[in-house]
């Protein structure tokens, strides 16, 4: 053991793990089973001071830094071969202030843990729809969820952040840095704590999936395009198309499904949803009053940990039913799917330059997701890329929240120059590069 590592262990309050040590293999696993990387050191941080210590150690030894919150990056960015993984998952502090309807949450929380704390007070903010996902990655990418048509994206509710810089300093984000964090990802530092606005939600909401036979998808989409344009903001809608929905009676049945969630008055919600529920001949209608926390976990089975996964996404004014039907018919595995969101309401009324996410015009966000077990995956990735290319003529852009291996410039557009200027100031040497990377200018600004 080097003297430097001995000193690190003495200064570090959390747990340091190296290859061969107990807990190392468990700590290096991430959600996407396609990645099996072996960091030289995993620093499981107890607090922001540990994050500072780990960053300084990695910089001193010129080791690449990977940052892990919930570990749900589709590219496995939370671990790297031979580098230092700064693991925030032990950092679980959360303080809710019901009087100001706000919360301060440590970066290691999952959405299940966050929602547990806020729902005790009947409060929530827009958050990820898979309960095991970390709040950090979702927030920094933009943050889509069931409440976004009523309360905006997660970043629209982000009021402050504390982060550790590339120099190992702990700072509170100023206005320009906060703008960049609202959609610019982990490019500017390691956020250790987020501060959000909260809103009265639940604890019981009206929601649940409705599944139609795939050959009724065109009818549903035609109805949805006209009906949703005038739907109240209280209605959020996720969508899914798959060959095998997570309902035993429908296993192996190609379906198109919607997951409506109504976060307003229940009686009004029943009336608003009635036309949708009467549409066509649903195979299953599971809409009912349920706890908001239960709604937040309804999509968990579609994102189970351990499977290999790859996706790409588009921002679409309309969904072409014939293309969608063809893509479902050729899904490479039973676990693969198309998944996305209906965009609109409050999320679309935010000024385009208010956050790094940029414009969110009414329409759809759609991901083509290949999931598979075992090694390989070239054919599955090829299906995603081919489908992505087929949808490209219909697309109007891309959201950074769902970037995979594409060039980040495809999502940021004209905002990239402003984001680059923030990067130049806070991370001119691209220390935080294991992410959808915004590269600094040659030489940076400091």
In short:
The protein has 446 residues and is an alpha+beta fold. It has 3 domains: 3-87, Uridine Diphospho-n-acetylenolpyruvylglucosamine Reductase, domain 2; 94-201 and 419-426, Uridine Diphospho-n-acetylenolpyruvylglucosamine Reductase, domain 3, CATH 3.30.465.10; 204-402, Vanillyl-alcohol Oxidase, Chain A, domain 3.
Task: Write a concise keyword list for the protein shown above.
446 residues; alpha+beta; Uridine Diphospho-n-acetylenolpyruvylglucosamine Reductase, domain 2; Uridine Diphospho-n-acetylenolpyruvylglucosamine Reductase, domain 3; Vanillyl-alcohol Oxidase, Chain A, domain 3; 3 domains; nine-stranded antiparallel beta sheet; five-stranded antiparallel beta sheet; 15 helices; 23% strand; globular
Topology at a glance:
Layout: H1 3-11, E1 15-17, H2 24-28, E2 41-44, H3 48-60, E3 65-68, E4 84-87, E5 94-97, E6 102-106, H4 111-119, E7 123-124, H5 135-141, H6 148-151, E8 158-164, E9 170-172, H7 175-181, E10 190-197, E11 199-200, E12 204-207, E13 210-213, H8 217-227, E14 235-242, E15 255-262, H9 266-277, E16 284-285, E17 288-291, H10 292-295, E18 308-316, H11 321-329, E19 337-343, H12 346-349, E20 363-372, H13 378-391, H14 409-412, H15 416-426
